[in-house]
């Protein structure tokens, strides 16, 4: 049996930072278990910037300004103590990344360059052209190799093992051989990213973003928090949902409807295109609904006025993506875009160190929910989240593992994984992964997307029960062991269906509009009844059980958001 002091599941920015910090004591054995090669993780798709109040561009910026912008952007659902901690520590983690060699763009004075981002009152997004996630990911992976972190690439985690009080480890599938393994660990950090693929093709997320860590925690009895809050980024490519960075608007890009009107003046007259993402996405959806969109339900992101030289320097990846996936050169013509499911504000309920109620089990990054984003995340705060809380989880897990002994692993520890695989491989059925997955994506996009109401959400809840019943009849046709991609897709589909139920049930219960959660039958924010977090645990019948906890308010009293 494989044994590690600290095991990180997931190899994005949060996981790699956590692994690096866990490995700072060289006598500890640390490993990263990931279903993809680490530098293919979805952090690499982040384009625009990472927030920190360095005051390099705007000398008046402070961490307190950043804190207020974050709380306001969250529609006052963020826990203010958690948001304060993140904004205070932001300059520290950026400087640490800089010292490790992360190649940020620079000002003429040699300082880290910063650009405007949506919902921010000051210029604070640190960037590297339009490839910030890519350079961060490679920097962290390089440092992990240097410090002796072990990597299990192309392994899929199937179950989280604990005795009710303490972590024991995980069960995992070696995708390359098809063999099942139990891995013993004093501490496990879940850093598997978000679950945008629940909306299937209407998402900017990679195919691997199927909420694996959140689903593992949910089935292990841990609570998921604020799952109904799913952010739709305003600017995804029309056909594929591929992200067009907020940095394009930060550089001065315009949003135009099919009539050529710069319509954001009707929705955010001060901030215009740099309003918060929930507001801009609803504005686009409203333009399309009212007949001012294109023939395919799109509007347009126009950066032609920036000029070829500036686009080549600041937005080179954006240009290439447009040419490759839309056949459009943004130097010459506007980019057709639609809102796309982009970020999961909800996740595994944790404290400031990523710790869950079970000793030794942590979550960090998009898989976790410390509640720094509340009902709507500001652009540039996701990469900051993975750095601050990946770092804190790694440091805390290191200290925990140093002072903890391994607990004996039960002989039957592998049984749940074996049962799961057997259920999917035995027998035969006409149900297919592709059909169930498409039906799930269509249902969630239509009934639990940008605009929601009780009737649609009730249909979503009922439809997901039916889809789960179909999933239980699913039998995969590929019985091979080596690189069985059909088995992997089936396991991911089960994870997504579990989480989709939590999203839909939470959205149905929350009878208000707040941030990314917009109810057409309850259009106002209701602080009296709903200034609280949704927590979901799993019933014995596999449906979500919801309860609620108050939001932590330390300084900023809720007020109307205007931009």
From TrEMBL:
Swiss-Prot/TrEMBL cofactor(s): FAD
Pathway: Carbohydrate metabolism; tricarboxylic acid cycle
Protein name as annotated: Fumarate reductase flavoprotein subunit
GO MF term set: electron transfer activity; flavin adenine dinucleotide binding; succinate dehydrogenase (quinone) activity
Location(s) in or outside the cell: Cell inner membrane
Stretches that traverse the bilayer: none
Fumarate reductase/succinate dehydrogenase flavoprotein-like C-terminal domain: residues covered: 437-563
Enzyme Commission number(s): 1.3.5.1
Membrane topology: Peripheral membrane protein
Active site, per annotation: 277 (proton acceptor)
Reactions the enzyme catalyzes: a quinone + succinate = fumarate + a quinol; a menaquinone + succinate = a menaquinol + fumarate
GO cellular component, one term: plasma membrane
Key words, A-Z: Cell membrane, Electron transport, FAD, Flavoprotein, Membrane, Nucleotide-binding, Oxidoreductase, Transport
Organism: Candidatus Thiomargarita nelsonii
Biological process terms in GO annotation: anaerobic respiration; electron transport chain
Similarity field: Belongs to the FAD-dependent oxidoreductase 2 family. FRD/SDH subfamily.
Subcellular location, principal: membrane
Claim: Cell membrane is one of the keywords in the record: yes
Chain ranges of the FAD-dependent oxidoreductase 2 FAD-binding domain: 5-383
Keyword Electron transport: yes
């Amino acid at each position: 049996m494989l044994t590690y002091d600290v095991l990180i599941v997931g190899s994005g920015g949060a996981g790699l930072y956590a692994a690096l910090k866990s490995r700072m004591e060289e006598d500890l054995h640390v490993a990263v278990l990931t279903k993809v090669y680490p530098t293919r993780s979805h952090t690499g798709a982040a384009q625009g910037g990472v927030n920190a109040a360095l005051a390099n561009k705007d000398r008046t910026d402070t961490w307190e300004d950043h804190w207020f912008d974050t709380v306001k952007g969250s529609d006052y659902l963020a826990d203010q103590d958690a948001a304060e901690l993140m904004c205070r520590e932001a300059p520290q983690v950026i400087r640490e990344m800089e010292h490790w060699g992360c190649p940020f763009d620079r000002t003429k004075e040699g300082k880290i360059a910063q650009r405007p981002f949506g919902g921010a009152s000051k210029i604070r997004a640190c960037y590297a052209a339009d490839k910030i996630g890519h350079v961060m990911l490679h920097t962290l992976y390089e440092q992990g190799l240097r410090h002796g972190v072990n990597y299990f690439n192309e392994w899929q985690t199937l179950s989280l093992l604990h005795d009710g009080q303490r972590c024991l480890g995980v069960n995992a599938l070696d995708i390359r051989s098809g063999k099942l393994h139990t891995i013993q660990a004093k501490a496990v950090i879940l850093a598997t990213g978000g679950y945008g693929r629940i909306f299937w093709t209407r998402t900017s997320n990679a195919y691997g973003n199927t909420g694996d860590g959140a689903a593992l925690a949910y089935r292990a009895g841990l609570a998921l928090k604020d799952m109904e809050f799913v952010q739709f980024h305003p600017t995804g490519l029309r056909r594929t949902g591929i992200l067009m960075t907020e940095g394009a608007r930060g550089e001065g890009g315009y949003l135009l409807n099919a009539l050529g009107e710069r319509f954001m003046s009707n929705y955010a007259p001060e901030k215009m295109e740099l309003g918060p993402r929930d507001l801009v996405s609803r504005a686009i959806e409203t333009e399309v609904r009212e007949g001012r969109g294109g023939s395919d339900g799109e509007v347009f992101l126009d950066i032609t006025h920036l000029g070829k030289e500036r686009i080549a320097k600041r937005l080179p990846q954006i240009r290439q993506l447009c040419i490759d996936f839309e056949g459009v050169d943004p130097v010459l013509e506007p980019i057709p875009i639609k809102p796309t499911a982009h970020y999961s504000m909800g996740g595994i309920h944790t404290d400031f160190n990523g710790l869950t109620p079970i000793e030794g089990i942590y979550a960090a990054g998009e898989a976790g929910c410390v509640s720094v984003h509340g009902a709507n995340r500001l652009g540039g705060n996701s990469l900051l989240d993975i750095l601050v809380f990946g770092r804190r989880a790694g440091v805390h897990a290191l200290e925990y593992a140093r002072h903890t002994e391994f607990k004996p692993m039960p002989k039957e520890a592998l049984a749940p994984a074996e049962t799961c695989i057997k259920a999917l491989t035995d027998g035969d059925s006409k149900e297919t992964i592709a059909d169930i997955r498409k039906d799930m994506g269509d249902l969630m996009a239509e009934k639990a997307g940008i605009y929601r109401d009780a009737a649609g959400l009730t249909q979503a809840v009922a439809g997901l029960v039916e889809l789960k019943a179909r999933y239980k009849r699913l039998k995969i046709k590929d019985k091979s062991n080596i690189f069985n991609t059909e088995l992997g897709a089936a396991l991911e589909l089960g994870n997504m269906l579990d989480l989709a139920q939590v999203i839909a049930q939470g959205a149905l219960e929350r009878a208000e509009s707040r941030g990314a959660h917009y109810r057409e039958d309850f259009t106002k924010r209701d602080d009296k009844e709903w200034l609280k977090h949704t927590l979901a645990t799993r019933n014995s019948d596999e449906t979500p059980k919801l309860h609620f906890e108050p939001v932590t308010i330390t300084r900023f009293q809720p007020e109307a958001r205007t931009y």
